[in-house]
Amino acid sequence: MTGGSGPVTLPRHVAIIMDGNGRWATQRGLPRVEGHRKGVEALRRTLKAAREIGIEIVTVYSFSSENWSRPPTEVSALMGLLKRFIRNDLAELHEAKVRVRIAGERNDLAPDIRALLTEAEALTAANTGQTLIVAFNYGSRQEIAAAARRLAEEVAAGRRDPASITPETLEAGLSTAGIPDPDLIIRTSGEMRLSNFMMWQAAYSELVFQPILWPDYGRDALMEALAEYARRERRYGGLSSAAGA
Ligand code: FPP
Prior knowledge:
single chain, binds farnesyl diphosphate, 14% strand, 6 strands, Undecaprenyl pyrophosphate synthetase, alpha/beta, 42% helix
């Protein structure tokens, strides 16, 4: 991306809460599942644009731990879309040197889905292009609790001194271990909340909320979010650069 004046800041890691599929479908008198289907097309367009723009890491929230409470037909449609997305797009992602990682609880998923997720990670593990993190059956509170549980087990087994527990040791147990925090979190559809997404990792993320519904998303909307990000000044709890010494 280039701007009129001076260098433009591109985020390294963009995380997206893809919201509004249901409303997109309802507005058109279509079943909600049709919105999710169009949502996968929007995901493809957006990932392609993000690669072309040079975003190093993209995380997408595809299924939350709370989404199980939706009607069974919608849950199974989302499972089917994930399977189809991996089956149809894995070769292209691999070709584009994308490294795929999955964040979320796998034990509750059907064995064929678990196998596909493992295959996607294994096939692309050595790729050095963009990293794509698919958050599926993901919940941030669950993720933080699991990391805390692991540390507690180490303490109980006498392998860890509680005084050694720091933000860094907890972070090592998160599904995003080793991945820099998102610089920018985008949520579509006008909703303004994190909904149990990356709450630890979002400590200093810039949040951009866009009214567009996810099935309409693509390069133009992503460029708008990046332009908004470039206008923000990130301070990480420090002072503004204009505040002087
Ligand atoms: C939110 O829309 C979206 C989801 C719950 C699922 C997101 C899934 C996709 C974009 C497609 C699936 C992609 C993969 C890789 C499986 P909503 O249903 O909450 O919309 P609403 O708020 O308008 O009802």
